[in-house]
Amino acid sequence: MSGQRRVSIGSDIGGTFTDIVLEDGDRRVSTKILTTYDAPERALLQGVAQLLAEADLQPGDVGLMVHGTTLATNALISRRGAKTGLLTTAGFRDVLEMGAESRFDQYDIGIEKPPPLVERRLRLAVPERTAADGEILLDLDRDAVRQAAEAFAADGVESIAIAFLHSYANPANERLAAAILAECLPGVSLSLSCEVSPEIREYERFSTTVANAYVRPLVAVYLRRLEQRLAEGGFDCPLFVMLSSGGLTTLETAVQFPVRLVESGPAGGAVFAASIAAECGIDRMLALDVGGTTAKICFIDDGRPQMSQGFEVARVHRFRKGSGIPLRIPVVEMVEIGAGGGSIARLDSVGRLNVGPQSASSEPGPACYGRGGVDPTVTDADLVLGRIDPSAFAAGAIRLDRGAAETALTSLAKGDDAPDLLAFGVSEIVDETMASATRVHAVEQGATVEDRVMVAFGGAAPLHAGRIADKLGIDKVIIPSGAGVGSAVGFLRAPIGYELSRSRPERLGAVDLDGLSAMLEEMSQQAHALVAKGDPKAARVERRTAYARYVGQGYEIAIDLPVRPFDQGDEATLLRIFEAAYRRQYGRIISQLPIEVLTWRVNVSAKGWTPTLRAPTAPTRRIAPSDFRDVFDPSAGAVLPYGVLRRATLEPGDWLQGPALIIEDQTTTVAPPGFDILVDAYGYLVLTRRPTTGGLQ
């Protein structure tokens, strides 16, 4: 079938596993391979070759590849980026150090903030000044820029961030400085804040631009190397990269703005969850994505993930907003915590059991992997509890050592605690950590949890979703097909898209409608051009959004804009839209305060994947397991016989009562005693809390 060009491959490089999915029409094959940190593309290419052989295909049969990676995230967290310099306006070299002058813990006199990515001696300032309205108050001192270039060269700087005051309003001085630096320092990477994050608020804009400069050389080398290796292997298909906003972009754009890849894997998971919500007609969903290193929690409302204007990476304090590096980029709104299969359990200084955020990752991995790991992890606990078949983990590619897991867990014992009791403690703590993070996220979003349907995916989520649903009072859990590699599947369902933003403060009542229309049209053309590079023939959808607030407030809310030039009646329209959105968020409006809009966004995406809707499936055949395994059940506090089934043997309409273990190549679904399991029309496992009497019959 060589040459038909209808095969798509999605690959997600995570902290522990690299997930690869191949889709050929309605056929899907997938694999999980331990991530190779020294050369991430090695595991990816190994997995791709394995799937092509399994599907009896050649590289020339592949028509599309989509890739997501944690490379940028890991570089920021571990501080392994390029040697970076910052060129800024005179008087503002310490913006990165001062931040927003807020404290994430008011009462900690020894508070620790993340150190800036650029040390002070490499933060150089030059005379120039632009006003907030874009007027050039002081021309750029070109000689000072050349002197800065000499200093950067003497220090061996590989990448430079250029961030001037108010450059979002007028980028002329930044662009001139970039031209001078490019002439003086050929080959040095340059990141301009007017391109990376042209928005108000100096600290966030400076921080985002510096982060982009810090990871850009590393990501560029990796992506170009991957591109070359694919070409050498006979692949000549387009290669797209997943963005944190849930869209796809070209390799060239990813190389220019790698900071937008920071949440690419979790964003793919959110796209996957949203596609399931569309298929199943779920209006309110909780997406739970648990891999080997982290857990991600996201709300999906009306078939769309919640979005945010910003994100924090590399927090020095768990769950503490303000303790990380702020990035002003479009991103799927989610909570990410260090709670995954590889999360390490340990006793703290007073003997309390803690789990995470440190992870055993893929090297050396959990103790049961037999790769040199000795620390007890969540995967070790799941194995000892009986949830995982040691001979079927990762489709049998990794044979687990229960004895090594028990030995690791006994390091947590305070006396003669049995390994299964210690494993129970580890499991309960990590489950409560995820449930607690969900509750906090719901409060912060003004949302509820109990009335949502949980969709669980990632290698570890199906193992823990039932217990977490119990803790949150959720009555229905869906485990989709391909759950173990959900983010990679989401990559193949994501549209090619791009989002641009620009700050331009405008007060309602004195809006320059013509100027705004011209600015939005320019942004629209730029976004359409970027999307067209990926797929020139695809139909495209455009959304325009503004972020507005009452004057004097610190934060904005999003309001939708018409996708057309403004006319004279639109000021009143904007007022109505804002008040309706504000009332939904806060329950009231403040009629006496003026309203201002700070930031304007344009999102353009190609029309891509659409759901195939199927009629609901009723339970038709009750399955009685013939095989059982002893599993320690947390709700009962005792070992119970769990029925054991292979997911591949189940068909739509099949149903059974928990407790049960449903095994597939990339994960295992643990159905607690209080749930019934139905295979729906899509082949998804639907766990429904059983009424006090009876079942699905």
Blueprint of the fold:
Elements: E1 7-13, E2 17-24, E3 27-34, H1 40-54, E4 62-69, H2 71-78, E5 84-89, H3 95-98, E6 123-126, E7 129-130, E8 136-138, H4 142-154, E9 159-163, H5 172-184, E10 189-192, H6 193-196, H7 202-232, E11 239-242, E12 248-250, H8 251-256, H9 264-280, E13 284-290, E14 295-301, E15 304-305, E16 307-308, E17 311-313, E18 325-327, E19 331-332, E20 335-337, E21 343-347, E22 353-359, H10 378-384, H11 402-409, H12 419-445, E23 453-457, H13 461-472, E24 476-479, H14 486-493, E25 497-507, H15 513-534, E26 540-550, E27 557-561, H16 570-586, E28 595-606, E29 621-622, E30 627-633, E31 638-646, E32 654-657, E33 660-663, E34 668-671, E35 675-679, E36 685-689
Parallel strand pairs: 1-4, 4-11, 5-6, 5-9, 9-10, 13-23, 23-24, 29-32, 31-33
Antiparallel strand pairs: 1-2, 2-3, 7-8, 11-12, 13-14, 14-15, 14-20, 16-19, 17-18, 21-22, 24-36, 25-28, 26-27, 26-28, 30-31, 32-35, 33-34, 35-36
Helix pairs in contact: 2-7, 4-5, 9-14, 10-11, 10-12, 12-13
